[in-house]
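Re: that chain you flagged

S.,

Sorry for the slow reply, it's been a week of failed gels. I finally had a moment to sit down with the sequence you sent. For the record, here it is as I used it:
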Amino acid sequence: MPFTIVRNDITRMQVDAIVNSAAPHLLGGGGADGAIHQAAGPELKEACRALGGCKPGQVKHTLGYNLPCRYVFHTVGPVWMGGVMGEEEKLRSCYRNALHLAREMALESIAFPLISSGIFAFPRDRALRVAMDEIRDFVLEHDLMVYLVVYDPESFRISARLQKEITQYIDDRYVQEHEETELLNLDWDEEWIGAPQASMAQERSFTAFREAEPIFDGCADSQLMPQVGEGEAMPSEPLPSTGFDDDWQAHTQPCLAVRPKETAAPVFNDEMEAKLRHLLAMQDESFTQRLLRLIDESGMTDPECYRRANIDRRLFSKIRNNAHYQPTKQTVLAFAVALRLSRPDTDALLQTAGLALSHSNKFDLVVEYFIKEGIYDVMQINEALYAFDLPLLGN
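Prediction finished late last night. Pasting the structure tokens below so you have them in one place:
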């Protein structure tokens, strides 16, 4: 996908370029800056010495040397001075200039740390907002794989209000769904039935089962019947105990059955083939067909749509060229968000891929929350998904 958040050590990122949040002299320091210099080897310091330093917001680059990346982009983030010294604009320049340099150098991937959020004391929530805004604006216009590398969970937080609202939304629906599922999956074990701790709802369900009309037309379950040969009558001896009460046993007792003779399976003929072909011709739109129609109806161009969906251009090409492409749920929901589909229309798009939203799945609930709130920003949704340790939208 064009953008993703990962928890990793930036010195281990196998990308075209990593971004170093450096000191103005570029000669290494503490934290990630020092770790990058150590991993790259002494050649990096010598190359940085020749650059003659760097001002806040600027970006300069060197080779990666012993690092797994090809290049290191060195940028100097602003020191937080209360927000009155133009710190936010300087921070935006760090991301903006690094992204445009990557494009000028025809790179395919770049990894950023959360610039200035360490010893430079830029508030992490504001630093995150700047990073997400600048990256989103860029990937909506250009094809570049961008990673935001988070070293520890404390470095990445969504707002307390949003966290609380999503948590409440999940709790209200996830718990209810699981309670209903547990009731449907009751174990009808005889020992459990008599257990004194069984709930009233469970007892009522068992009573309904016992009092229901027989489904065997007066005959016992075939598993309870002695095995007989073709054309032989069932013996009238009492059936073995079923574990239920005598009345139910008596109800099924007087049944005599004759085992029908087996018949050959019908041969697949021309008439059956014609009917099958007719049914196949009437099948609904495939996912690809529905998606392309929705894009046309939205007035978006293809690049505009797949970028808004956080989908890689190569994956979109596969989808467009395969009428029967089978997408993942993350991909379908990413396009639903990009196209600003309502919940019913989102369900319809999922159905074309044989998928559905479920209240027993936390990933589904988080995405559903944003759709119902009318928030169709994939980047913002992915922030929340990452905060809840869930998969991200996109491919």
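What I noticed first: The mean pLDDT is 81.

Talk soon,
D.
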